[in-house]
């Protein structure tokens, strides 16, 4: 049975969010405005955000992660640069926080 995270008491919500991995916290923060406020109110301390540029299968990659004091890399998200998409139609993608991206 699923439990709505936003319907839990404030203290329980904050404890649940602080126990998540960095990647899960990032994904929750872009779900909705309320979940973004939930992540901000949890006041999670991030040691250091690092960016890595690389190449995978001929495409440029951009990785974002967190580096701890012990120099451990925890991935948060990654992006793949594709110079041209093979789309016949234009799509509008609704992202979190009322941001719309048009792909052509």
UniProtKB/TrEMBL annotation:
F-box domain ranges (all copies): 2-49
PROSITE patterns in UniProt: FBOX
InterPro entries given in the database record: F-box_dom
Entry protein name: F-box domain-containing protein
Organism classification: Eukaryota, Metazoa, Ecdysozoa, Nematoda, Chromadorea
